[in-house]
Amino acid sequence: MIDDTLKRRLDYCTTLPSLPAVAIKIIEMANDPDADIRTVCEYISLDPVLAAKLLRTANTPLYKSRRVATNIRQAVSILGTHTVLVIALSFSLANSLMATPLSNISAAFDSNIFWRRSITSALASRALGEKLELNFLDDLFLAGLVQEIGILAFWVIMPEEYGKIFASTPDHDELLEMERENLGAGHDELGYALLKKWHIPDYIALSCINSHSQPEPQNLGPTLQSCLAVSRYLADYFLYPHEAGRMIALNKATQDWLGLDPSALIDVIKIMEVGLSAVEELLK
Q1: How many of the other CB atoms lie within 10 Å of CB of 132?
Q2: Does residue 278 carry a pLDDT above 80?
Q3: What is the CATH number of domain 1-16+103-284?
Q4: For the chain, which residues make up each domain, given as ranges?
């Protein structure tokens, strides 16, 4: 885990984005197994933009519902309390972080690429879960969205030091090793520490670390960890489709982590192609 010096820099950094009150309340409810529908609807309704996005989400093909939701209570009824909380947390985190000016970050940091990669990774995680018929698609989406948040944190707390490391390699796995060698921790560990500071549910926060580890035994079946790990390579493929090495790395990761053959991977890519523009629109 991160050393005390790096943890202090994270704890005392005043330029990291702060979460809005509605997001903090949603996190509290996500950590409360007894959160009731009425309270969830009440707090989400306090943010008209968030409420509107949830309604649009409930009525998108992503959820294949035969009913049309016209208010938050109906959306909760269709999707379920846990799903609504996870979706609301995804939107609230993405919107508040993307809208926060990060004036101390070097001009070398491309926030557009960072967030596009985060959104693509989120959709990739969900698409893999859909293909594998998993029942925690929204957890996959949220975890995919934040699994690289440690990169943003490094840029904020040490822009000059981190900028040199970030610029030295285009390879994600090599970047992680260089972070550990030069800074004492990787962005997976720093991301976990930041999400814990925000009180994000632990199973989501741990995804930062778990998705950057070594492949699990495939006899465990597909897990949140294995889908997230592959989503990183899927995101790279979508962002850099003309780089031949990206597909090679994606095929290897898909086989190593999930045991999926190339035809199954093509199905996942098709699911992503259908959903990407809709998700990008929802997260604006």
Answers
A1: 18
A2: no
A3: 1.10.3210.10
A4: 1-16+103-284, 18-99
